[in-house]
Design goal:
It is found in: Cytoplasm, Cytoskeleton. This protein is of the alpha+beta class. Helix content is about 25%, strand content about 20%.
């Protein structure tokens, strides 16, 4: 195989150009370094997660920069900010396989550079520009054409310059040199996690090279590894055997290509025939509709003509009562008769006619109805049936979307089940926004190979309908029952618990990911309570998020463990946190007055007053709604069942915080809050309890195919 015949293997799936500094993704596909960065930055822009380049207080997100208690004081001062050119998002869909991949905490820096692919690309480029010579880098003008390149010096030389700069008998004479090239790669592959360590092992579980520190105490500590030489020998033997097999099957491949060409022609003919049959069926439907249309319109015309005839007869009858009509004129002439006997003889019959006309005036009723309500065509059932019109399923069962496993947060995760007897080859997930103003929003389609999919392009505070249908070959099943989900009212705000600022490690326990905290009611609390002789009080242990907010609208969610005794969740400003977290540890909670005997927090404060903090109490599987002058303050109306997940929405621009039931995306409580300072997600625990931050929906919810 010549180097020019492998061009399509050397093209990046993202930019559709030859690879430039390719990186190996976790799904084993390669992509240009700049393409990865552009993809992540574009996702950052879409999620409003890119930090500001300026260093003023208008920045919507601020990282706490110091582990000391004074770190909050320095938040409002000019200081370090996240570089807007550094992506925050670490997950994106692979352009090669379309499965989502998660780069982890290290992001791009944790990926290996594909030097082998880079070398092959350089060979291809050299073959493509064979007429263009590579000039010597050390010659005086004019430079001579180079004859070799030194991989240690990363430079190209002509024969004379190479002898001058690599004299015989010196260390440089031992340098590795190759033909003229512009691709200088390092001789030793270094570990991306431990930059000073060279790669010398191969992890069989993760299928990637590692160093000895990765095996000793890193992420590959419990994985099975082998030596690099053993992995090199094994993989090279497998690859060589596969290549020999393909070369030996060349004639078979050619016959299969001929067979595929015949199948393509047959498919084209069958497709045209299927289109003709479909057109025939639809034309029959059109004929039935036209026939019914003609029948309905004829019935309406007949009824209209009959009613108009009745109205015309009634109009003519009433016209006879007008002053210039014959009956009235005749009656007026009869009144001129002076002979009594003659008048009585004539007036008797005339009076009966006049009396009948008078009675018809007193009881006026139209001769027909103007409404055609009985002729309104009801097509709702037929429209629904036509909407489900599809190919004959041939026994392919309808998939069912799982309401328990499907959810929406920063994105939507849709999961469905399909019976084994009707196993499908692929699925099509359809979704659309439910908008009351627009009558019909078109469905969007996503091709899916598995039974779950993450949908990312959803608008905030909108309802979406999802449905799925299965495909087996060219046959598809009817659509599943629709599932309606409501997106959060604002973009999802990402943060972790801060383990340094005010964190009490004697009472609180953080997990390694810093997205879960537990309160341990142990001997420390009992020893503290032993000193109390009068009254009883317990401290609240506070913990905050590691990211601050100064503007914009943000949303985050959390789960409170059912066994929790007392948990408070909400927001607090940086100056209020200084007051709370600097209070002595041997006193009561900074929000609890020891002598007053009642909670002095925001729950009992005036609803209309804007404070720099708001916390809602949760515990014993209940949510306690704070008092409000606009609603009933009876205890039974202020105590609600605890939702499985609770959402918090902070609108700094409006100065308002809201609390949501995530299952129904329903607002439980909202109140004004003073956002003049930097605001932080705040939490407090007392007694036994636990808080789990809602995990953003990312690539790890989908399993991508393992590399062979």
């Amino acid at each position: 195989v010549t180097i020019k015949n492998i061009e399509r293997e050397l093209v990046c799936p993202a930019c559709k150009e030859l690879f430039t500094h390719p990186l190996i993704l976790p799904c084993q596909h390669s992509i240009c370094h700049k393409c990865v960065k552009e993809l992540l930055l574009s996702l950052d822009d879409g999620l409003n997660d890119v930090g500001s380049d300026t260093s003023n207080q208008s920045s919507p997100r601020l990282r706490l920069a110091s582990p000391s208690m004074d770190r909050i004081d320095r938040i409002s001062r000019p200081g370090w900010k996240r570089n807007s050119l550094t992506p925050r998002t670490t997950s994106f869909p692979c352009p090669g396989c379309e499965h989502d991949v998660d780069l982890g905490e290290r992001g791009i820096s944790g990926l290996f550079r594909n030097f082998t692919l880079e070398t092959i690309v350089e060979r291809y480029r050299q073959a493509a520009r064979a007429a263009t010579a590579i000039m010597c880098d050390l010659c005086k003008p004019p430079p001579q054409e180079s004859t070799k390149s030194c991989m240690d010096c990363s430079a190209s030389y002509c024969n004379e310059c190479f002898k001058i700069y690599h004299p015989w008998g010196t260390v440089k004479a031992q340098h590795e040199y190759v033909g003229p090239t512009t691709n200088f790669r390092p001789k030793i592959l270094m570990c991306p996690e431990h930059e000073t360590e060279r790669i010398n092992m191969y992890c069989e579980l993760c299928r990637r090279p590692v160093c000895h520190l990765c095996k000793l105490g890193g992420s590959h500590a419990n994985h099975r590894v082998t030596t690099m030489s053993s992995a090199y020998k094994t993989l090279k033997e497998k690859l060589s055997k596969d290549i020999d097999y393909l070369i030996g099957k060349e004639s078979q491949v050619k016959s299969q290509i001929s067979e595929l060409n015949l199948l393509m022609k047959e498919t084209e003919c069958n497709g045209e025939r299927a289109k003709e049959e479909a057109v025939t069926h639809f034309e029959k439907l059109f004929e039935v509709l036209e026939e019914r249309k003609s029948s309905v319109l004829k019935a309406i015309d007949t009824s209209k003509k009959l009613r108009l005839d009745k109205f015309q007869s009634q109009v003519e009858e009433y016209q006879g009562l007008l002053e210039n009509s014959g009956l009235v004129g005749y009656a007026q002439e009869v009144l001129k008769e002076t002979d009594q006997s003659c008048f009585v003889q004539t007036a008797k019959q005339l009076h009966l006619r006049i009396q009948k006309a008078t009675e018809s005036l007193k009881s006026f009723r139209p001769a027909a109805q103007t409404s055609f309500e009985d002729f309104v065509v009801n097509t709702s059932k037929q429209t629904e049936l036509l909407g489900e019109l599809s190919f004959f399923s041939s026994g392919l069962d309808v998939p069912e979307i799982s309401e328990e496993q499907s959810r929406v947060y920063n994105s939507a995760l849709i999961t469905w089940h399909h019976p084994e007897k009707g196993k499908a080859d692929s699925y099509v997930l359809e979704y659309r926004k439910l908008d009351r103003e627009e009558e019909m929003v078109p469905w969007r389609e996503l091709q899916v190979c598995g039974t779950s999919k993450v949908v990312t392009d959803l608008e905030d505070n909108c309802s979406y309908a999802f449905r799925v249908r299965a495909y087996r070959g060219s046959v598809c099943s009817p659509c599943s029952r629709e599932l309606v989900l409501h997106t959060p009212p604002a973009p999802v705000f990402s943060f972790l618990f801060d383990e340094k600022c005010g964190y009490n490690n004697e009472h609180l326990l953080l997990n390694l990911k810093r997205d879960r905290v537990e309160s341990r009611a142990g001997f420390n609390i009992l020893l503290a309570a032993e000193r109390i002789q009068v009254g009883c009080y317990t401290t609240l242990d506070y913990i905050i998020g590691d990211v601050g907010i100064t503007k914009g609208k943000h949303f985050w969610a959390l789960r409170v463990e059912p066994y929790s005794y007392l948990v408070k969740v909400g927001v607090a400003s940086s100056d209020k946190l200084q007051e709370w977290l600097r209070s002595p540890r041997d006193t009561a909670s900074p929000r609890y007055e020891q002598d007053s005997g009642h909670d002095s927090g925001s729950e009992d404060a005036s609803f209309d007053s804007s404070q720099p903090f708001t916390l809602v109490t949760i515990g014993m599987k209940k949510v306690f709604i704070p008092k409000s002058p606009t609603s009933s303050n009876e205890p039974e109306n202020r105590v609600l069942p605890m939702p499985a997940s609770i959402g918090v929405c902070l609108d700094c621009d409006k100065g308002q915080v809201s609390f949501y039931d995530m299952d129904r995306m329903r607002c439980l409580y909202e109140r004004p809050v003073d956002c003049s300072h930097t605001m932080y997600p705040a939490f407090a625990l007392m007694g036994s309890g636990g808080i789990q931050l809602e995990e953003p929906i990312t690539a790890k919810y989908l399993d991508y195919a393992e590399a062979v």
